[in-house]
Amino acid sequence: MIARVLYGMAEKEMAPHLFGRVNPKTKAPIGPTIISIVVILALALLFNLESLAKATNYILISVFIMINLALWRLKKREAHPKGIRVYPRAVPVIGFFLSLGLLIFQIVYALGNL
Q1: Residue 87: what pLDDT?
Q2: Where are the domains of the chain?
Q3: pLDDT at residue 30 in the model
Q4: What does pTM read for this prediction?
C-alpha cells in the first residue's frame, strides 16, 4: 500500500518524480517498492512486534479520524454530484467521534497497563 500511495502522490506531483517510475513488465512502482521494503525491514529489525502493532493501530485510527474530518469539510464546501448516493453530513461526524473515542480508549487502556 505504501508503494501505491507514493506512486499516486508522484502522479499528482505531490512527491518526487522518482516515485512515479514503474517497471515496464509488471507495471509496479519501482522506487516506492524499494523504499517501502527498506523502511519495513528496518522497523521489523529495530522494534518488537507488539510495539509495531500498537503503533500501526494508533496511526490507522488517526488516519480514519483525518479522513472523517476531510469528508465533513468536503460535504460542507462542495455541491452534491448528480447520480451519486449522498449521505448526510452527520455520517463523517459520527465516524470522527467514534474513531476519536476508540483512540482515546486505547491510549487510556495502554497507560493503565504500564
Answers
A1: 84
A2: 1-46, 48-114
A3: 87
A4: 0.69
